[in-house]
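Recap quiz, item 2
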Amino acid sequence: MLLLLLFILLLLLLFIFILLLLLLFILLFIFIFIFILLLLFIFILLLLFILLLLLLLLLLFILFLLPISKGKIKSKDKDKEQDKDKDKDKDKEQEQEKEKEKEKEKEKKKKKGLNMKEISTPHSEEERKIKCVVWDLDNTLWNGVLIEGDAVSLREEVPKIINILDSRGILHSVASKNDYGQAMEKLREFGLSDYFLYPQIHWDSKVRSLKKIQKSLNIGMDAFAFVDDQPFEREEVSFSLPEVLCIDAAHANRLPDMPEMNPRFITDESEIRRQMYLSDIARNKVEDGYTGPKEEFLATLEMNFSISPAKEEDLKRAEELTMRTHQLNTTGYTYSYNELNEFRKSEDHILLVAALEDRYGTYGKIGLMLIERHEGLWLIKLLLMSCRVMSRGVGNIMINHLRREAKKQGVRLQAELLPTDRNRMMYMTYKFANFKEVRTTDELVLFENDLSNIPDFPEYVKIRIENY
Amino acid sequence: MTTNGTKEKIRSFLSKYIKKKDLKEEDELFTSRLVNSMFAMQLVLFIEKEFSFKVENEDLDLKNFNSINAISAFVERKAAP
């Protein structure tokens, strides 16, 4: 009995002991838990602290670095090397123009195994080409301030500069805070008014003026140079439109020698570029005012379209077209002058050039077709047309001409198309011209036309085809 | 949107480009040369914007665009949820 009691007591003690142990464990757990919580708390605090530090750094960066980069832009025309940093940040829209001025080597590289990403890589400073110079008037184009009643006199070197650049196909415009009528009158007096496309003469900011000109001319912002005597204006432009090349009016006489002002190509087209823009302005005015159907308007243009085998004198322009045309280009293959010359002479190729003119003037050579001749088959390697003629409905004339010609020669007609994010219109043009996809390898689409239902040429355009 | 509403929108867009009076719903637009294929791009952009869907490459077939009826049927097929 006593033994049993002792045993029970021992059991009880053991039980209490275990309970105590459990309690201890629980306490320990709670401690650990609190410890972890504390750690977490410290960690969060640390994170917050780091974030704050980063924010502070950013603020400091914005506060200090911005004025520095502004300063850089200011002294830009004096120190060209500094421009290099700037060129990197430009958006795709501006790259589009840049692409056109790509170095020959790069272009050759992408010719066959064309990689679209490669085209949109940023370009170095040396390749930057200016397509339009925007001038301030007071104390830049002329000496004196017009609105203050000064007897302004044209700066001596200015007409020469404008003329030289004009002959290279570089356009000119005006961004001036002035009275429009008065300033235009003065420009006419100086015999310069015809040189300036879409002149912006008003009291609005120069940034807005530049944007307007850019939109009207439809070229990239990085193809613009801005000449002004006032540091304030240049800085404002540099700040809002860092792609624009700002030049102090005091250095205007250096313009013709700047590499940016020396385009790689000077073709017949360059020389009449301004004229083409002027006739385009006249045309658009009529088109905007025209309320009837599109085809009727096109008929009023009295267009003359010609297709002829490429001659030697066409090749420079042909090369330029392969490099400058991205949107209305079926494959984007680029060819050098020499390659094109080989195609021109080769029995296995047909190289055709299309030109357009209307009652307002010429559009110049605006289309190019390269056909590879195989046994019983023509393969259209390249079909492109300049954006200038986008809404003129001539793209189809080119394609339908090839369809007819192939039918006449009794050969099959195939076409290559390399889709990009920009040439969707050409895909559609082929599809809607009854081309069917034969196969797609990698990116390359091969089309074939069954040469049935070839429509007549439209009535609103006169077509002349030179034998080949 | 009702079929008639769709057709009306398409018709009013087309009227800017086609001079033919009283264009019928079944009239062929492309094969009969009423419009050219540059116009096709504008038509596709119009459809994408007006009816808010993307026209894919495989949709770019003449049979989807060759008449008011065809376009309307195409739009309804694509825009249906």
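The domain at 3-79 of chain B is CATH 1.10.1200.10 (Non-ribosomal Peptide Synthetase Peptidyl Carrier Protein; Chain A).
The mean pLDDT of chain B is 82.
End of item.
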